[in-house]
Task: structure prediction
Amino acid sequence: MSDVTPIPPASVTVVSGGSRGLGLAIVQSIVDRGAKVATFARTVTPELEALAAAHPDRVHVASVDATDSKALTAFVKEAEAKLGPIDSLVNNAAIGQDSLHIHTSPAKIEQIVATNLTAPLVLTRTVLRRILAGPGRGRIVFVTSICAQRGYAGLVAYSSTKGGLDSAMRAIAREMHGRVLANSIAPGFFASEMSSVLGQTQLDAITRRTPTGLLVEPENIVPYVDLLLFDDTNTNGQVLVVDGGGSI
Amino acid sequence: MSQLSREQVRSMMSEVMAKQGKELPADDATPLDSFGFRSLDFSELALKVEDEVDEELNFDAPGLRSIRTIGDVLDFVQQLLEAEE
Result:
């Protein structure tokens, strides 16, 4: 009989981009579960500041640019000093795109790749090193996108970064050889994101093409993050799609 | 950067349509969907303009979505050109 035990639930989690939207909802949910969380964003919102003030022993917050690797390393050290050994990570921070590839400047492509692919790879490396140096086992969650699996106009660079993360996730699941559970959650289009760039007619058309008739909301994604951080499901190297069936 | 007149851009737009065997209507108020001018036709026009002015005119999609007529296309291109100056 094997003496291997399941990877324990997350106890101290780093969440990138936790100041608003899905990131803030993930941070709140981790706090609600009684675990500790360290999060950063370029701008710390009043909502996040309030959460940190309400749970000073369980929440660590800082203003950090995700593409600044030195600042990220310093943030992780500070977080461990305050909260204890880090054993989990939710890679959530990302920037969007809404431009045809032929009209997207090389500088913009570099920015999307730096923020959405290079930064999470570097942060994941940092957290994996802390996991191996500390608790020994842990969990990594990537928030990617349905764009990694299906083609959508105006999202070429963005899609390439999300596909890159899904591929990295599978490689990490292999490379960490059972010490780390690595998985992705691939949301469909968020109602809030879509409404900021599309007209009502286009929103209605997208909603009609989604079998549930509902675009994605942060509260649809949070239960999957909880599942991958806290539950014993033996799920590893997988992409969980949450899109109302829009991609089927 | 060399500046292009509205008429020069209109002429390039005619060339884009001519490649598809279509004629560009004379009235600037003509809706684009009435003669089959699609988003990639706008991209083709933008690339022609780029070649002419020797500068890239990069832009996001939301601006394109508000374009409805020939006049809107010409206005948008003029705005891009002015932004590059």
